[in-house]
Amino acid sequence: MFSYRHAFHAGNHADVLKHFVTIQLLQYLNQKDVAYTYIDTHSGAGVYELDGAFATKSGESETGIGSLWNLNEMPAPIQEYVALIKAMNPSGKMRYYPGSPYIAEQVAREQDRIRLFELHPADAKLLADNFRKLEEHAAAQGVRPTVRGKRVLVTRSDGFASLKALLPPPSRRALVLIDPPYEDKQDYKKTKDALEDALKRFPTGTYAVWYPLLSRPESRLFADKLKTLPASSWLNVVLTTRKPTPDGFGLHSSGMFILNPPYTLEPMLKQVMPWLVKALAKDSGARFTLETGTQASSARNSGER
Ligand code: SAM
Predict the structure, then answer these.
(1) What residues make up the catalytic site (predicted)?
(2) How far, in Å, from the CA of 138 to the mean position of ligand 1?
(3) pTM of the model
(4) What are phi and psi of 126, to 5 degrees?
(5) How many domains does the chain divide into?
(6) 162 C-beta closer than 6 A to ligand 1
(7) Distance between CA 68 and CA 62 in Å, rounded?
(8) Residue 1 domain-assigned?
(9) 106 and 98 in contact (C-beta within 8 Å)?
(10) In-domain check, residue 138
(11) In a structure prediction context, what are the per-residue pLDDT tens digits for the chain, which is 305 residues long?
């Protein structure tokens, strides 16, 4: 059950897609003063060492964030993402990579709430330790004191189950990131079920789901199933960096499926994705797809009334 460790994959092309989109979603929420809640149901360890044993064994970051590190010109949304990672690496050497909890902590404001869930005992401890260090650092510097107190809560628990108690959030504004390992194929169903329940409790929230594109049927059919959920609109963006290998080994494509996306997301992705495909391409199979829909169009397409 606990075989997955995100440290092997930190900073790969899938993290690039997930994290630059997450920053954009948070920045959209930042446009209004009213506080929001960021909920990360599957948080991981929060920060990763790219020169640590896990990351160097896989080498995955080299063809993800590593491909962007030395570029000078890039679209603004990618620039913002790369700048956040460079800020955690003041020596200029690419050593640390932020997970989604750290990214959210950096982008969200004083008044916003960050709720983090992680089930793996080792990663839950690392996550809590990383946030404790951040808090101590903030206290020592006298800056960003809001890390303390109730702004960030880290809980070792099942993110799917824990989500229920947080919805709807007090201010009726929230971004929920659901990013399970999917090594257990039940994660596909659990994600869809969790979204179904969440939309009943809080229909207007923004929900972002990361998913891998693998040959197993649960993965291939996943996005189409999410399109039938009763959100008023959805957006599905898939990044492919190479052709699949004959043995099917490794991750060549992943997607971000957003329920109730901000209206700014689609035009931004139309501009940025062609550039990102070129920057991360490993062969001529590299491409992206971008689809959007509304509840009405999904019901029509699936034959529902
Ligand atoms: N969201 C993180 C990021 O972007 O930096 C990466 C998360 S990683 C893909 C998935 C994490 O979910 C793993 O750390 C795994 O231990 C954890 N996990 C697996 N099942 C879980 C569950 N039911 N509830 C909470 N965490 C879970």
Answers:
(1) 179
(2) 26
(3) 0.95
(4) -60, -40
(5) 1
(6) no
(7) 9
(8) no
(9) yes
(10) yes
(11) 567 888 889 999 999 999 999 999 999 999 999 999 999 999 999 999 998 777 777 788 999 999 999 999 999 999 999 999 999 999 999 999 999 999 999 999 999 999 999 999 999 999 999 999 888 877 787 765 555 568 999 999 999 999 999 999 999 999 999 999 999 999 999 999 999 999 999 999 999 999 999 988 899 999 999 999 999 999 999 999 999 988 878 899 999 999 999 999 999 999 999 999 999 999 999 999 999 999 767 666 554 43
Residues 6+ apart with CB under 8 A from 36: 29, 108, 112, 113, 169, 171, 173, 174, 175
Tokens of 155: 């809980």
Strands 96-98 and 287-294: unpaired
* Residue 16 domain boundaries: 6-301
Distance between Cα 184 and ligand 1 center (Å): 12
Q: How many angstroms separate the alpha carbon of residue 42 from the centre of ligand 1?
A: 3
Residues 6+ apart with CB under 8 A from 285: 240, 241, 242, 243, 244, 252
Q: Using most ligand atoms within 8 A of CB, pick from 1, 5, 6 the residue to mutate for ligand 1.
A: 6
Is 229 contained in some domain? yes
Active site residue 187: no
In the chain, count H helices and then E strands. Answer: 12, 10
What are the C-alpha distances in Å from 178 to residues 8, 82, 102, 140, 169?
19, 22, 15, 33, 16
